[in-house]
Amino acid sequence: MIYLDNGATSFHKPQGVYRRVLGAMRTCANPGRGGYGPAMAAARTVYGCREAAAGLFDCQPEQVVLTTSCTHGLNIAIRSLVKPGSRVVISGFEHNAVTRPLYGLGARVTVAGRKLFDWEDTLSRFEDALRQGAACAIFTHVSNVFGYILPAPELAALCRQYGVPFIVDAAQSAGTLPVSLKKLGADFIAMPGHKGLLGPQGTGLLLCAGTAEPLLWGGTGSASLCQRMPDTLPDRLEPGTLNVPGYAGLAEGIRFLERVGMDTVAGREHYQMQRCAAGLKKLGMQVFSGPHQAGTVSFLPGMDCEEAARILARQGIAVRAGLHCAPCAHESAGTLATGTVRVSFGYDTHSGETDALLHAVSKFLRQPHAIRQAQPGECS
Amino acid sequence: MKIYYITFRSVTYAQRGERALQRGGIHSTLLRTPRWMEEQGCGYCLRLRTREIAAAAALLARAQVPWRKVYVQNKDGQLEEWKYDLS
Predict the structure, then answer these.
(1) A-contacting residues in B 11-50 (Cβ below 8 Å)
(2) Average pLDDT of B19-37?
(3) Where are the domains of chain A?
(4) A15-260: what fold?
(5) Which tens digit of pLDDT belongs to each residue from A320-379?
(6) Chain B residues within an 8 Å CB radius of A225
(7) Closest C-alpha to A177, from A218, A142, A204, A223
(8) Are A108 and A86 in contact, with CB atoms under 8 Å apart?
(9) b/e A12-50 (16+ beta carbons within 10 angstroms → b)
(10) Which residues of A touch B41 (CB under 8 A)?
């Protein structure tokens, strides 16, 4: 299979990741619960993941909270900063992992900056919204649909300037773009472990500048007599047994990235994205590309996007179609009615695979139902 | 040489402490805190054998690793809280 759905998860993990997962299952018991060998091995494994992440994201190990997903981390962060009725400023490219918790809390949401690949619009709209005051701001670092890299350092500076606490969704950037808790000055940065960081599914990280409100209550292996959750991180946010094999794999994924170099990975993905975007344009597809774009590109295939993805899947090419859990982003781009086909590249994607996709797409044009190009905003 | 136990609020802080001491050339062993040492219940501690506990404390302070208490083994082999101010 040609796997081009790395925005959903990185399906091909480095070999060391598989080995570490299995190794942890064989050698680790419950971390932070006992003093015997396998329990201590588990504690060392978990701490190894925290240390690796802390090194990569410029923070202390206890500021690295292990979560089950980016969504889990975002829920903790949002519930820590947002109360019912709070005004929250978000970018025009947010995922449902941000918008649904806000909706559930009854927050008053202001969407700021909807122009794709336009930093000037993103920054000026965000500043206008922040100027009116907000309990919190949330922005994705990279749009999961369009690969648009938002100007995270500049947005962070605006939030700091207006004294608005903020959360960064690094779901699509962690592992390919520099992310520093210290430099951004964010209150929280949430990310999955299983995408760019190359760990297994069911892993995620929440970087916390300070304390946070627990989403779950339970045993932490510490301060057991106290019925409140411990004040200290990470225990406060990590009740219950951790996914030790998952974090063993995630630590190895991070170490792999450090060996290969994030710049190298980002460069490869960006090259394939550009090659793909150019090829799709030549074929007459409506392609969403521009400056400030990571290794993800969306296009309109000239037929129903789910049908296009099905045809590609039959030819052994995995892409994602539809709304990608981000109606906000589609509304911004005018593709809410059609959705898009998203191609997202990984650290190991090579040009032959990109060319195979282009060849498969070119076949659409020869099919009778592909008689016209769907337009953004048009109902299919 | 005396044996000391430094207790921490969580296993993560104990592990950070272990790393900080290691970087400073002091070997320590991560253990579950004996129940009587931890009034809040479960916890982890570092056991170390050293002549200068103040040097170990300085390493922890420099690495900003907060600890709860320090215990020292007395001549009778009993552990008692180290009363000196290490901060």
Answers:
(1) 11-13, 15-16, 19, 30-32, 39-44
(2) 94
(3) 2-10+261-364, 15-260
(4) Aspartate Aminotransferase; domain 2 (3.40.640)
(5) 999 999 999 999 999 999 999 999 999 999 999 999 999 999 987 777 655 444 455 443
(6) 39-41
(7) A142
(8) yes
(9) ebbebbeebbebbeeebbbbbbbeeeebbbbbbbbbbbb
(10) 222-226
Options 3.40.109.10, 3.90.1150.10, 3.20.20.220, 1.10.1060.10; which CATH number does A2-10+261-364 get?
Answer: 3.90.1150.10
**Per-residue tokens: A154:** 């500049």
Q: From the candidates A208, A220, A222, which should be mutated to test the interface with B, based on the most B CB atoms within 10 A?
A: A222
Residues of B in contact with A239 (CB under 8 A): none
Looking at residue A139, its amino acid is F
Which residue does chain A place closest to B9, by CA atoms?
A: A222
Q: Answer yes or no: is the ipTM higher than 0.90.
A: no
Task: Report how far residue A197's alpha carbon sits from residue A353's, in angstroms, rounded to the nearest whole number.
Answer: 22
Q: Does domain B2-81 have CATH number 1.20.1250.20?
A: no
- pLDDT, tens digit, for every residue of B61-80? 999 999 999 999 888 888 89
State the nearest Cα–Cα gap between A143 and chain B, in angstroms: 33
For all residues of chain B together, what is the average pLDDT? Answer: 91
